[in-house]
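Fig. S4 source data, part A: sequence.
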Amino acid sequence: TMGANSSSLAELSSNEYLIRLCGKQPISSNDPYWNQLLSYAFVPPVTSTDAKLLEEQTANLLTTFTVNNVSSGNLNSLLRVLVTMVSNLQQFVLEPLADGRQSDIFLMQLYNALFISRCIIKHLVEQLSDELLLTQIEHCPDKQLHQRRLLNQQRQSQGDASAATSKRDLEEDDNSGDESDESNSSSEADATMVEELIEALVHLLVVLPVRESTFPVVYESVCSLLVLLSVQMYRTEPAEKLTFYQILYTGRCSMHAFRLMEVLLKYYVQRPPAPDRMLVNAGGSAGLYNSLASGLWSMVTLGYGSNPAAEQRAQLRTGLLADQSCLLSLVLANHCAGARRFRNPYREALLSCAHANDPGNVEHLSSAASNLISFRVDFNLLLKAICDRLPRDEALLMLYLLLHSAGGLQFRGYVGRQGGDDSQLAGLLLPILRTLHSEAQKSSHQVYMALIVLLMLTECQQFCTRVHEIQLQPASVSGWFTERHLGLVSLGSLLAIVLCRTVQLNVGRTRDKYLHTNCLAALANMSTYFAGLHPYACQKLLGLFAHLAKKQKKLVDEMRSRPANMAELEADRASVEDLMRCILEIVNNALTHRLAENPHLVYTQLHQRELYQPFSTHPAFQDILQNLGTVMHHFTSALGESSSEHQNQLSEHRVMRVIEERSRSFRRDRLKKFPEPKYKYVEEESPDEFFIPYIWALVYRSSNLYFNPSKLLLLQSQQQSESDDKEGQSQEATA
């Protein structure tokens, strides 16, 4: 009943319907039993805690099912029922929806079939190898159908070239709908049950609109695909060698890749609300649970746990489908990105989407997507959806993919050129900057993604210009930036401050050159467009150089006193000097291109000009320091003249006034020309090694599904790697 408590779950093992499902006796797919089993209404678990409790209470039943299914084939029968229901979707759901009629009973039974199948397959994925898992799914109690499939497999193994060619053509041709009914029937006969299952799940997401009545089915379809793809967490093989991925990326499903990614992104943006009945674990009328199996399934899903808090319930209401769709889209887009055997159509779809309100813009489209727009989405709403979820890892990853240079660059261009109003661009950057500012409390993956996103954005000239035009009120940063009161500060200046701080905090405790390089590369890209740089940003920039100069001197002294460690110390010294050189290039570029717009940078240079003296003849810095010396000489001469006029009394205000006046008369042709820094993010050669464990860690943590951590080989290896990194950093910091 609705009020059953957790102790009632013990009665599951004696329930006649589950005993028959888990037994050795085959149940045909047309047996009335399925109609009885699927005729109930219940509230599904929507949190990982509840999902864990459910799995614990059904573990023995699922173990029994696994043993007996190899002879009964009841999983195959259940999936046959499910696939048949999906094939009848047009008649029993889509047409009634179009006419304003209800189809609640059919949708309830369809959802139940999805949910039960997902629970069983998830258990099998965790417990069995790929070969045994497929055997469990494919074993068919219908001997006639089983023999027909065996005959088809024999024909294929004997090299039926014409059939193979026909199937390949069907998989690659987007216009396969023109094939004859006979050809389609033959293709369906050749399909395995796992192929039919995955195709049914994709079909549900592609064609079924989200309504209050259809929401559970759509949500469960997303969860079911995530569970099938979660096989990667339990395997050491790459995804391209796993059957579920091969079917999704190369089979008939791949023809729907553009539409599927469009639907998932739409749910992410629109956040369709979950119906109340999915979020309430108490109350209701016994009349809703009038089927023979209602007692069983109400206990399974309602007889444990406590009601979620109101705040959690509100988050689940708008985030349940949206966040799950985001995770599925990230999984689809990031696996098999570098596969040699086949392409990733889901990644291509996401990278080549276009702005819905800019139909005339077809420039810079992805060559990987054959110069076609995959689908259109309102970039303004998409950007808002991402901003609302930052700095969550999922939002950072979605932003990374949309900004990726392998795509059409349309989203990156949109953010740089217009990107909503100034408040929206601030809403995009402030959570990322806050993440970097508090990076000690964040995961290394989140920090890296934040830096990569910033580097990608700074590759856009319009973005670099816009951030210096947006002024932030103190209240915008007072909640987390506490090291100094900044007053009015531009978004660009705050970006420079946080990047300098990130380098300075990490340069002494980690040798991760990518972190330092990405920070300084983003600053270098911005330096051509520095305007009105805040005094504290100028101090942080020069302060970083001073910090590195001290480290360089210490290394040089150690090289003299510890010649046995010469090779290691020499490498460290060269790395530090590379960073110092980069800072000088940033300052030089800003003064070369934007001298008049940055009086505080000139003032800071004059105030700390002795900082450069020890390196004036250093071969790594000499050429740039000559430029900076020319600039400083121009202003020191002007200040000397002004000092004579004012009896050697120059206030800070007067110095700034002289700098502003003499900036207009400075001739840029007096400076040696250096190439304008233009750094671009280049993805690693094997991005899967970083992204795949990262994404599945997010699924494990955020999907509201439960995965047994003791069995997750992929995440165990990641945790070991992170532990080794932290140990190395700790040892280095101590040294």
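Fig. S4 source data, part B ends here. Strands lie at 354-355, 376-377, 471-472, 489-490.
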